[in-house]
Amino acid sequence: MADVNTWKVVAFDLDGTLTQHKCKLDVDNRRILERLGQRYQLLIVGAGSCRRIWEQLDRYPLDIIGHYGMQAASCHDGELQITDDQSVPVDRKWALTQAMSLRKQWGLERYQGDSMEFHASGLMTFPLLGTAASLEDKLAMDPSRGFRRRMLSTVRAAFYPYTVFVGGSSSFDIVPQPYNKRNALDAYCRRHQLSTSEIVYIGDDYGSGGNDEDVYRSPYTFLCIDDYRQLASCVSKLL
Ligand SMILES: [Mg+2]
Q1: In a domain? residue 171
Q2: Nearest C-alpha neighbor of 208 from the set 175, 166, 179
Q3: CA 207 to ligand 1 centroid distance, Å
């Protein structure tokens, strides 16, 4: 049984786990990272790019897996070094057509900015309110994730064979196979010669369709967090 004496790496989701969505790390959680960092290697496993994650954390020095394992990076002397950077081609016209069909079906035809966000890696985001909606509107749209869970099977069918996650505050992440957070952790273990029992993972999206669910349902030790402001109690047994 894995426990505090076994763990070498503490891995985190970012948005909703260490910070509010797309917001900076607050002072309290930064102090917690500093304390954990004295004892463990710290790792973020995120949906965003490694650089976006690093900037959101004000360039905090840790290992980063971005875009569900399509990117990896580490920090040395205050610089971010990208160690892996995968990309796959995307049929944008097809993706936009699928998104518009879903918008019509689910009453989401009013949106701000773009209907889809295309990342250089080939990962896509389907933001239900559009790319230019305010953070306030995004946070208010589906805080229980219930609406997106009702949509999930139709979004998965529309974007097959991509893997679709309920991600962000009001969006879906549409990810090329075979990338997901569990496979990304497995690759990290192989690269750093770690066993599954040496990593503990902390995430908030462990529910049905969430982007932490595959880690939650894997052999990795998973600590659930439902509010990033409760990080101190969540990690108390690690300190
Ligand atoms: Mg999250």
Answers
A1: yes
A2: 166
A3: 11
